[in-house]
Amino acid sequence: MTGATTAQAVTQAPTALECRDLAKTYYSTDPPSEVVSGIDLAVRRGGFLAVMGASGSGKSTLLYNLSGMDRPTGGRALLEGRDLTSLGDREMSRVRLTRVGLVFQQASFLRTLNVRDNILLPALKAASGKRQAAEAAARGDGLMERFGIAHVGRHGITQVSGGQLQRASICRSLACEPSVLFADEPTGALNSSMTKEVMDALTDVHAGGATIVMVTHDPACAARADRVVFLRDGRLVDSREFGAWNEEEAGRREDDLITWLREQGL
Ligand SMILES: Nc1ncnc2c1ncn2[C@@H]1O[C@H](COP(=O)(O)OP(=O)(O)OP(=O)(O)O)[C@@H](O)[C@H]1O
């Protein structure tokens, strides 16, 4: 494929996620604090967006308001063209369960269930009927194989490593076949070898066609994305575009991002 054709394909790819003039003000503080504002963003289907910025710049808030975890106080957030801001609470819960995957810094699992049962829980909850439940279980098992944790499926939550738990968290999200996978500092609590494990898993998910939005402080993680945006004081002030991920370019991409972040004052 030529460069021009690739660019054309990218611009014509359908949008998975979009927001227009998105704003979030917390009224629980006195005075109310406007944490993000004026955010215009579109992520194409199959895109991998990394969100960076200083601590407190509004990255997690943006992610919560794009994913339906929270409601914006201004503007609109659209998932697969559907305006999340117009949905009632029940519809929103359904969207969160079936269309959105969430991976957090600290994976939260039920200690009373083993790893496999935790992974399957939301997908089985979303399934209607035995056939869909069997399909969901097969999907979960396939994901555990793919991400190298099938052998710890029967282990308790406290009997696996942090990297395995984060891969389990990714499997749990993907078992529901979300349209977008949102990850908030997915490697923030991991050492460097576990960080690589988890980023390899996310890179693999992306290569398989998934759309990912990830908040990260780590340039090595952001280098896996095809686009990186920078938030300052709740506003989107700059962005950087990369081509498809290529392991050989990892160092160059990370260096490029470190220089860019310094220019942004980080
Ligand atoms: N529920 C809330 N109520 C009031 N203020 C909040 C709430 N959640 C976040 N904030 C404030 O909003 C600002 C942005 O927080 P947010 O967590 O989005 O930033 P962040 O860029 O993700 O930070 P970090 O990198 O430290 O995680 C912070 O000042 C935070 O204290």
From TrEMBL:
SUPFAM superfamilies: P-loop containing nucleoside triphosphate hydrolases (SSF52540). It holds the Pfam family ABC_tran. Keywords: ATP-binding, Nucleotide-binding, Transport. InterPro entries: AAA+_ATPase, ABC_transporter-like_ATP-bd, ABC_transporter-like_CS, ABC_transpr_LolD-like, MacB-like_ATP-bd, P-loop_NTPase. Gene3D superfamilies: P-loop containing nucleotide triphosphate hydrolases. This is ABC transporter ATP-binding protein. GO terms for molecular function: ATP binding. Residues 17-258 form the ABC transporter domain.
